[in-house]
Amino acid sequence: MNPTIVLVGRPNVGKSTLFNRLTKTRDALVADQPGLTRDRHYGIGRVGERKYLVVDTAGFDPVAKDGILHEMARQAEQAIAEADVLLFLVDGRSGLTPHDEQIAARLRRAGRPVHLVVNKAEGMERALVAADFHALGLGDPLPVSAAHGDGVRQLVDIVLAPFAQDEEAEAEADAGPRVAIVGRPNVGKSTLVNALLGEERVIAFDMPGTTRDAIAIPFERGGRPYTLIDTAGLRRRGKVFEAIEKFSVIKTLQAIEQCNVVVLVLDAAQDVSEQDAHIAGFVLDSGRALVVAVNKWDDVDDYRRERIKVDIGRKLNFLGFARFHYVSALKTQGIGALMKSVDAAYAAAMANLSTPRLTRALQVMLAKQAPPRHGIFRPKLRYAHQGGSNPPVVVIHGTALEHVPASYVRFLEHGFIEAFKLQGTPLRIQFRTAHNPFAEKG
Ligand SMILES: Nc1nc2c(ncn2[C@@H]2O[C@H](COP(=O)(O)OP(=O)(O)OP(=O)(O)O)[C@@H](O)[C@H]2O)c(=O)[nH]1
Ligand SMILES: Nc1nc2c(ncn2[C@@H]2O[C@H](COP(=O)(O)OP(=O)(O)OP(=O)(O)O)[C@@H](O)[C@H]2O)c(=O)[nH]1
Is the pTM of this model over 0.90? Predict the structure, then answer.
């Protein structure tokens, strides 16, 4: 499980700036898609192989007008409750304020490790910066400059040190696809889980002790093994599973990161909401394979069916790589076909793409349409090999590749997807430029 780091602090101390710095490596990998609205409060960061989840509590709507406890948004409270570690940001330029002291008092009761981070410390003497804030009784203040990046890497190393890297996830290949069922509240996730698990055999399922940990439920369907990654803290009650907690973005993100294939559940009776779009955006960023289940199809008439299709086409057009299924979890209709698409998406996400076939596919695309010239530079794409799975990564070698426009990258992505018939997974392109100054011209 990726550790969850939650940023807390009064307005204007630099939480958003630090959030961007902690998550930027990942964000930069994913080209912005038309129609995609991102939830900027949640992001995945990475140091080397180590991934972590960052939550920025800035800008959440206050629930009540006054009092620091009420002022902390409900979502901020939920994030604190679900955090593995809290970063408490203060402003090294303005010094300690009463507001800081109130937040500190709240965080001391959180029962989580808290690191006191003094931001805007660029060009300031370390001892001087820290002196003021020792009084908070939250240990040694860690000076950083979120804007300039000073001290941020050291901060991440200190924060992540207690969290052992877990490598169990990918290893169990014969446990079948790891599937996460995600969606906003009330769309029918629990009902779908029960439709999947109900009559099927749940293999030696043990409930772990804590509710904060995601649960992996192994099961078999049509003779194939799967593992269901829980999002809602499912509890077994008699024969069925039910959600024990309210919706959690953090758990949703954790489940997406841990699975191979996401099943995104939408409610056919309602228009696509901002929350649906945000969850879809998380899936897109993660690079996971995806199948969309438009649920409660039994409950809507023909007019409504047309309308929801149009709405989905307009608001979620960036999910074009996924297959859509119109299902009823309640009446267990369309579930078999849905799981067929899960299998196909898994196979696509894990596909082996041989270097000769990739290079041939590349040459076919180049023959169809060469990348445009950029000033004196003409990008030359020479050969391709596979650089990863889930999502498949295609590494292209050549020269002047930094001048390939985003639209051409998308053309290549689609071309490889078609050449290898990869249904249900996104695909990513990485460029490796050989620095040969002579080859770049011409
Ligand atoms: N000098 C300096 N300024 C910084 C640094 N980090 C952030 N700032 C500035 O501080 C201001 C507030 O930064 P934000 O990241 O928006 O602060 P925030 O805590 O997210 O604010 P809210 O969204 O209001 O809670 C901006 O003008 C930033 O440019 C830093 O390391 N050094
Ligand atoms: N008509 C119809 N109702 C459904 C269907 N699937 C779920 N429902 C109903 O929708 C409501 C919500 O279903 P849940 O399975 O609890 O939804 P959920 O997404 O798990 O909700 P949270 O636990 O709040 O996240 C319940 O009343 C279900 O009976 C369906 O296919 N058709």
Answer: no
Which of 305, 327, 349 finishes a domain?
349
Task: Answer yes or no: is 165 within a domain.
Answer: no
- 60 in the same domain as 193: no
Of 19-28, 66-75, 354-363, which range is least confident? 66-75
- Residues 406, 379 share a domain: yes
Which residues are 4's β-sheet partners? 53
**Where are the strands (E) in 174-231, listed by range?**
178-182, 216-221, 224-229
Co-location of 142 and 252 in the same domain: no
Ligand 1 pocket test, pick from 17, 60, 71, 72 with the greatest ligand atom count within 8 Å of Cβ, gives 17
* DSSP state, residue 231: S
Token couple for 177? 């696809």
Residue 442, pLDDT > 50, answer: no
Of 326, 349, 372, which closes a domain? 349
pLDDT digits (tens, 9 = 90+) for 274-285: 999 999 999 998
What is the domain range of residue 123? 4-160
Q: Is 210 within any annotated ligand binding site?
A: no
Residue 248 has pLDDT above 90, yes or no: no
- Phi/psi for 113 (5° steps) reads -65, 135
- How far is 396 from 383, CA to CA, in rounded Å? 6
Q: How many residues does the chain have?
A: 442
Instruction: Identify the three-state secondary structure at position 425.
Output: coil
Q: What DSSP string runs through 54-99?
A: EEE-TTPPPSSSSSHHHHS-HHHHHHHHH-SEEEEEEETTT---HH
For the CA of 145, the nearest atom of ligand 1: 31
Which residue puts its alpha carbon closest to atom 23 of ligand 2?
243
380 against 242, higher pLDDT: 380
Q: Cis peptide before 372, with omega less than 30 degrees from 0? A: no
Does ligand 2 have an atom closer than 6 angstroms to the CB of 191?
yes
What percentage of the chain carries pLDDT values higher than 70? Answer: 83
Q: Within a 10 A sphere around the Cβ of 149, how many other Cβ atoms?
A: 12
364 and 261, same structural domain?
Answer: no
Give the number of domains in the chain.
3
Measured distance CA(56)–CA(8) in Å, rounded: 7
Same domain? 220 vs 90 = no
Which tens digit of pLDDT belongs to each residue from 148-182?
Answer: 999 999 999 999 999 876 555 445 556 789 999 99
Instruction: Give the pair of three-digit tokens for residue 115.
Output: 């690191």
pLDDT tens digit sequence for 180-225 = 999 998 898 888 988 888 755 555 444 444 444 557 788 888 889 9
Task: Count the neighbouring beta carbons within 10 Å of the beta carbon of residue 369.
Answer: 11
